Amino acid sequence: MALIATKGTLDMAYPPLILASTAAAFGYEVTVFHTFWGLDILHEEHSADLKLSSVGNPNMPVPNVVGALPGMDRVTTRMMERRIDDNDTATVGELVETALEMGVEFQACQMTIDLLDYDEDDFFDGVTTGVGAATAVQDMAEADIQLLV
């Protein structure tokens, strides 16, 4: 299974992590290629501080005009963090660690690392760096399942 993670918001961090760890539990060999803001999921410090945008999300309990007010992203992020905590849902960091332990290969796009000036030492231990689009495409070509999330 090959997944591509391009988003680095709190709500978009969960789908690739849950799909990857579930597939690994079913015995799939799984790679997740993280590019652009998806790299924040693999960054130990940033993954603990992902935000939830209140604008442009039709499922948010506030209208866009209210969501555009200063500070609303903090409010909606806090609401989601409370739900995660109240439901004993694993954090993004816990899901990354679990998936790594299960053998999921998290790949960090080298072009994006360079472009956004990330320090590779800030990624979770076990994240594969130095990966380019050619490697991701090859993984997708060989995979039975390919997903862009």
Walk me through what this model shows.
The protein is an alpha/beta fold and 149 residues long. It has helices at 10-25, 39-42, 44-47, 64-67, 72-86, 92-101, 110-115, 133-142; strands at 2-5, 31-34, 105-109, 128-131, 146-148. The chain has a single domain (2-48, 91-148), classed as Hypothetical Protein Ychn, Chain: A, CATH 3.40.1260.10. 46% of the residues lie in helices and 13% in strands. The longest helix is centred in the N-terminal third of the chain and has 16 residues, at 10-25. The radius of gyration is 16 Å and the shape is globular.
| Helix percentage | 40-55%
Structural class from helices and strands? alpha/beta
Q: Give helix and strand order, one letter per element, not per position.
A: EHEHHHHHEHEHE
Shape: globular
Mean pLDDT reading: 90
β-sheet strand percentage: 5-15%
Total number of helical segments? 8
In the CATH hierarchy, what is the architecture at level 2?
Answer: 3-Layer(aba) Sandwich
Strand order of the largest sheet: 4-3-2-1-5
In CATH terms, what is the fold-level topology?
Answer: Hypothetical Protein Ychn, Chain: A
When the domains are counted, the total is 1
What's the total number of strands? 5
What about the largest sheet? 5 strands, parallel
CATH superfamily: DsrEFH-like
Low-confidence regions: none
Report Rg. Answer: 16 Å
In whole angstroms, how far apart are the ends?
13 Å
Indicate the CATH class: Alpha Beta
